[in-house]
Every structure is written in C-alpha cells, then in structure tokens.
## 1
Amino acid sequence: MTSAHTDPSPVTVRVPAKVNLELLVGPARDDGFHTLSTVYQAVNLHDDVTVALDDEWNCTVTGPYVDVVPTDSTNLALRAARLLADETGVDTPVHVSIAKSIPVAGGMAGGSADAAATLVACDRLWALGLSTEELEEYAAELGSDVPFLIRGGTAVGSGRGERLAPVLARGSYHWVFAISDIGLSTPAVYAECDRLRGEASVPDPTPNSELMVALRSGDPHTLAPQLTNDLQEAAISLRPELGEVLASGMEFGALGGVVSGSGPTVAFLVEDVESAIDLTVALTATGAAREVRKAIGPVHGAHVIPARVD
Ligand code: C5P
C-alpha cells in the first residue's frame, strides 16, 4: 500500500487502435448521434499513456503526430483524467504524457484510445480500485468508442457504439492499414452520410449473423466478404482518392478492404503475415498512402505495462 507520505510512481498504460469490421449506421437520434450496430476489433497499433502526479493538470505528446494533437484542455485524455477526478472526489492533478503512434483523425479511435488509457492509468495511480464496468461507464461519457478501447478483443457495439457485448472470435487476423496524411472529421463524415441518404428512411441496424459465423470460423477468407461500413461512401465522397486506395489494395491481393470507421484510414484484411508484408510493400510503392502499417487483431484493451524509460 502507498504510504501517505510517498507519491505513487507514474503509471503507463498501453492501448490499442480499433478497426470496425462492420459499421451499420441507423437513423440520427435527437441528441445528434446515430444509432449504430458495429463490430469492433482491437489491433496492435498502440499508444502508451503515462500519468504522473503534478502541480497542475497538463499534457504532452511525443511521436510523429506531435504537431496535430492539442495539449490544452480540449485534449480528450486530459478531459478523461479530470472527469475521473471530479466523479471520484480526487483533487491531485496529473501530467498526462502520450507517446502517440495511432493515426490522428484516421478512423482508428486514436483520441478515444488515449482517453481509455488515461482512465485505466489514473484508476491505478489514485488507487481507486474501480471495476472495468465502472471505468467503461465513465468512458462512455467521453466518446462512443472509448469503452471499447478499455475492453479490447472483438465486440459488438450498439446504442451510439458505447454499449458492448462480447463476440466469439477465433484466431488472429492480419491487417494492413493505408494511412492518409490528412485526417477526416468524424462529424463531417456522419453529416455527409445523412446528406447522401437524403429523405430516405433508415431502419435501426442489427448485426449481420454471417459476420458472426465468419468470426467463429477464424478464416480470413470467410470474414473478408463480410467487411462493411455504411460510412465508406460518405468518406469517399469527401475524399475520392480513398476509392483508388481501396482498388489498389484489392488488386495487390488483399482478401477484403474497408474504410476504417469514419476514415480516411483504409483497412485491408490479408491471409497471413507474408501477404501482409507483400501488400505493405506494394501499397507503399504506389505512394497512394502517406504510410502503410501492418497489424494483428484481436488484442487486449488498455492495460498497465512496466514504466517507460525515456
Ligand atoms: O462519440 P464521439 O465523440 O466519437 O462522436 C464524434 C461525433 O461523431 C459526434 O459528435 C457525432 O457527430 C458523430 N457520431 C454520430 N453517431 C455515433 C457516433 C458518433 O453521429 N453513433
């Protein structure tokens, strides 16, 4: 137990990115969010978030995205720390340090991942002893996909994406992500989806049972044709070159391809690690994406790791 006179050591949490294997968008709700049915999978592109006691609430970011992540009070990780402090009566500020590797505004929940990691890290730092369910409830206040980044694995999301149910998924899947140099705004992509739909009435979405069967099979060939995203058309409408990226990936041997979340990252499912390397090389050579990265899913959600040595 921590003595009253000894500050707790900083806590580092590793958190994955996500890809949506299925993203079915229903009608807009009165609160502006859309009813969703989605299947999330956590993949091993990670951010590491460290929280340490400090004299004031503040945040720093390191890594390739340092210029595009805000470090003021709008930073979602900092907001997560302050929310948890307010809700639990903690009055000891923290410094949140984010070693960022997940693409920013890429449809892979990078900001949400940092918020999820911060909740898990502050729970440990402040010795709150909250359950995963309690942390997921706070997470839902910060964003629709924050609870999933705490849970990880493969899960169905309903409501606005924050209500989770586990999915039986066998095996590991190999992914290749084509990452754009300029992000897309999630609200803008949802708004474009509404615009394209016009007055058409949209039913409440339900999960596709064939996707569940495919996940139980563990076979990427069975899963690939089930990948689907109702936001894809809207993302391509705002960023037409994404259509070309998708076509290139399929031409170079991907089993399936889909825009990840609200984009603009494009996710390709491949057969095995060799195919992932081949596709990464081929897509990199086309220059169609700023960066191409391999990943494996599913992986664990946000979890404490031994402290970083900088
Ligand atoms: O929940 P999150 O903060 O990630 O949502 C960002 C934005 O994405 C929302 O403000 C809303 O415009 C849109 N969104 C939506 N329906 C959802 C999730 C997000 O319209 N289910």
Note: The pocket of cytidine-5'-monophosphate is lined by residues 32-34, 36, 143-145, 160-161, 186-187, 190 (CB under 6 Å).
## 2
Amino acid sequence: MALLQIARMGDPVLRMKAQPVDDPTSPDVGSLVASMRETMLAAPGVGLAAPQVHVSWRIVVFQVPPARATDPTAAPGAPDGPVPFTVLVNPEIEPLDMAQADDWEGCLSVPGLTGVVPRFLRIRYRGFDLDGSRIERLAEGFHARVVQHECDHLDGVLYPMRMGDLTTLGFVEETQRALQARASAARAGS
Ligand code: NI
C-alpha cells in the first residue's frame, strides 16, 4: 500500500473514458483500492476515482462522514445520511426524478478551487464490491452528489464541465471570505 500521486486537471487520463473491470475480486483491484483509500484519507477527501490516480478503470471509492451528510442524524442506510467507506466497481447511476440542486463542490484533481454544480437530488446507484457482491442503494443530497461527482470521473468529466454558472468558480479561500462577508452584511442589515 502506498500513497498515490493524484492527477490534476490537464492530465489526459482525467479526460478518458475508463475501462470496465473484468473481475472485481482480483488482487490487482484489491491492492489498488487499498491505496486509493489511503490516498483519499490522507488528501483529505471524501471520494476518489481510479483515473485520478492514473488508472483508467471503472472504480470509485467514497464515504459520507456525519459532518458532511445532508441529515447527520439519519438512521444507518438512510439515503441522505452518513455512509461508511464504500467501493463501487463498474458503477451505474440512475436519477429517480429530474429534480436537481445547486451546491459547492471541490475536487482533489482541481486543487484549491470550488464552484457551484447542479446535481440530481435523488438517484439509485449500482455496482460491485471487492468480493464480487452486488451493491444497490438509493442516495439523496450530499450522498447523491458525491457518487455523481466520482462516477463523472469515469467518463472524463470534471466538475467545472458541469457548472451552470462559471462566475462561481473561484479559489476556496477567496470564496469563503466572500461568503462570510456577505453573511455578516446580511446580519448587520437585519
Ligand atoms: Ni473529483
């Protein structure tokens, strides 16, 4: 296991359509996922796709910590609650309806930047675990957003390519400063 180097926007591997994995139980897949997990946690990030570590295979890993969940107090397994570390091999996503929501996203391959991205609010996703068993879950809110963001990487799509309004793209520090200034101005005006 080792920390892997993360590809940054501009690297052609991030624009490729990744290949399906023949055997999710193969040792190569297992060791790649172990290193992806370490790399994601060290970054730190909540998700990582294999192309981000220069491997063009259809594999993503993610988790939804309670602090990031749309409903931090949701019962285990709730679509919008916390989600433990998850591997998805050959994932597929199906929106449950056309409702979308805007929220801020960042990406380890686009370091330092953030922007507002529309995503489907409610999805069903399917994939395979490392033991070859099927995973099928409903996801909402932040959970659904993370899965859509990570699976986009498997088709060569980075979040700025999904943004509806590029004027929200900015550096994290500057964006946070501006949002805080706006919030305190709103408080002063009330
Ligand atoms: Ni990303």
Note: Residues 136 and 183 are 40 Å apart (CA to CA).
